[in-house]
Amino acid sequence: MTTAIIGTGGLGSAIARQLASGGEILRLSSADPVSARTLAAEIGHAAVVAADNRDAVQGADAVVLALRFIVLKGVIDEIADSLTGKLVVVPSNPLTTDAHGNLSRVLPEGQSSGEVVAEWLPAGARLAMAFGSMSAKLFESASNRSPEPAVLFYATDDDRAGEEVERLIRMAGFEPVKVGGIDQSGRLEVGGDLHDLVVGPAEARSLIGGP
Ligand SMILES: NC(=O)c1ccc[n+]([C@@H]2O[C@H](COP(=O)([O-])OP(=O)(O)OC[C@H]3O[C@@H](n4cnc5c(N)ncnc54)[C@H](OP(=O)(O)O)[C@@H]3O)[C@@H](O)[C@H]2O)c1
Q1: What's the distance, CA 207 to chain centroid?
Q2: Cα(180) to centroid of ligand 1, in Å?
Q3: Is 192 in the pocket of ligand 1 (CB under 6 A)?
Q4: Which residue's CA is the nearest one to ligand 1's atom 15?
Q5: Cα of 147 to ligand 1 centre, how many Å?
Q6: Would the pTM count as exceeding 0.85?
Q7: Using alpha carbons only, what angle is made at residue 130 by residues 127 and 131, rounded to the nearest 5 degrees?
Q8: In this structure, are residues 127 and 157 in contact, taking their beta carbons and an 8 Å threshold?
Q9: 32, 84, 132, 176: most buried, per Cβ within 10 A?
């Protein structure tokens, strides 16, 4: 199947490499076309560079918005009419960086990026918050762990989105575990109790309080 990845920076490139290694076909797009082209060349035949963000989504079954929170709304508005019926995966933490590299939240404490993004998406798009619960470095090093796979948590309100994001999580070399609906997605973000954890399925289920 085909997944569009919009944003080929630190996290988007890590997600692209992992999905391609699992066999996913990728359509890449970024503000800087050189970054998308360099990544596509590294990945090989499984990745093509799209003409722009809208072109990336055309023909894709799912889209990963690997973007900083402050540009997400603009990109969602740009591609909104192509999102109907598609899985939209968002890993964004609600953070921004100042000129000195200091991170700060752009949303009030207690409000997650998932809750805000759910309001921005058009009707018919199926949202799953996933792939942002670990640093890009940890995400790559923890993938395809053996003998017990590491877990990647996700949150969604949509059962079909859950099935589809589970497929992508497995492609990327992890075991998917649902933390709950979008109202639980803050647990995956920087500062959340499930952020930057590398755990197996049994420990993951006990952490989220499931069976
Ligand atoms: N990096 C991590 O370890 C990590 C871990 C967990 C979650 N996350 C989350 O993942 C998101 C991305 O983080 P990152 O570290 O990958 O950021 P990043 O390195 O800055 O990458 C963001 C990418 O988005 C591109 N971009 C910006 N505006 C765009 C637009 N209008 N259309 C298409 N592409 C656009 C940027 O291109 P230009 O460079 O040309 O601007 C860049 O390639 C953030 O929300 C972050 O909170 C990151």
Answers
A1: 21
A2: 25
A3: no
A4: 10
A5: 32
A6: yes
A7: 140
A8: yes
A9: 132
